[in-house]
Write a structure and sequence with these properties.
Blueprint (H helix, E strand, L loop, with lengths): L2 H7 L2 H8 L5 H15 L8 E5 L5 H8 L9 H8 L4 E6 L2 H9 L5 E5 L12 E7 L7 H11 E12 L5 H11 L13 H11 L2 E10 L2 E12 L1
Parallel strand pairs: 1-2, 1-4, 2-3, 4-5
Antiparallel strand pairs: 5-7, 6-7
Helix pairs in contact: 2-6, 3-4, 7-9
This protein binds S-adenosylmethionine.
Length: about 230
């Protein structure tokens, strides 16, 4: 089957092998880099990090490995991620995406197929749970409740999710366009106030939030939000 047709007509499983490629790859890298810069100050020594809806593991790969000391942006991360012994885990509902994660052979990383609404780890397991570009696929109430359960006391959730509060016409058009892709047909995009009220009802405090332009696609904005248990 033509790979572009496959991309439009399939759930994530079937186009996982194209996900990191030219179509999404450059946007993904720049986007992840921005997210990592934002959360680097919150990453403590020997942290356990779970990435939910981890896709092909591209975000965790950058989190752990992309730490060239010469790169100003990642100077802080190089001291946290590599020198400070991060242990990272990723879960994703798609077997195809998890297979791509495993192929990356990221040091100190474990991946498994699982639902965000049923995180397969005991209570108080993680210092940080990240969720990058996946929140709109999830049941947010169940996901936040699971994060609260699986986080250690004082643990953090980092959310990076497209803003429907900004650039309204362009964002609406883009969402309309993504409805032609099977993977995004049921996506539900939350406003900041909706995220905030679900987070508060679950027992989280918002400790930082900022709407940032999407790198390489500045017409979009994305919310970068840190919640604390
Ligand atoms: C747009 S991709 C983002 C992947 C990755 N976080 C990134 O930044 O590249 C969304 C991911 O969410 C996953 N996903 C969708 N629903 C899920 C669920 N209920 N539980 C876990 N993962 C889910 C999909 O399989 C897909 O890999």
């Amino acid at each position: 089957m033509n790979k572009y047709f496959l991309f439009m007509s399939s759930p994530y499983d079937n186009f996982a092998k194209y996900y990191d490629g030219w179509f999404i790859g450059p946007f993904l890298k720049a986007h992840h880099k921005q997210a990592i810069k934002f959360i680097a100050p919150y990453i403590k020594e020997n942290s356990s990090v779970l990435d939910v809806g981890c896709g092909t593991g591209a975000f965790l790969k950058q989190l752990v490995k992309r730490s060239r000391p010469s790169t100003r942006d990642f100077g802080e991360l190089s001291r946290t991620a590599q020198a400070k012994g991060l242990k990272v885990f990723g879960i994703d509902a798609s077997a195809g995406m998890i297979k791509r994660c495993q192929k990356k052979k990221i040091p100190n990383a474990n991946f498994q197929i699982a639902q965000a609404e049923d995180i397969p780890f005991p209570n108080d397991s993680f210092d940080l749970i990240t969720c990058v570009d996946s929140l709109y696929h999830l049941n947010p109430e169940k996901f936040f409740a699971e994060c609260h359960r699986a986080l250690k006391p004082g643990g953090l959730v980092f959310l990076d999710t497209i803003s429907v509060d900004h650039c309204k016409i362009f964002t609406k058009l883009s969402i309309f366009f993504t409805r032609f892709f099977q993977a995004w047909q049921k996506a539900k995009y939350l406003k900041f106030q909706e995220i905030k009220s679900i987070a508060k009802a679950t027992g989280f405090n918002i400790i930082k939030s900022q709407a940032k332009s999407f790198p390489l696609a500045p017409y979009y904005k994305t919310w970068l939000i840190v919640l604390q248990k």
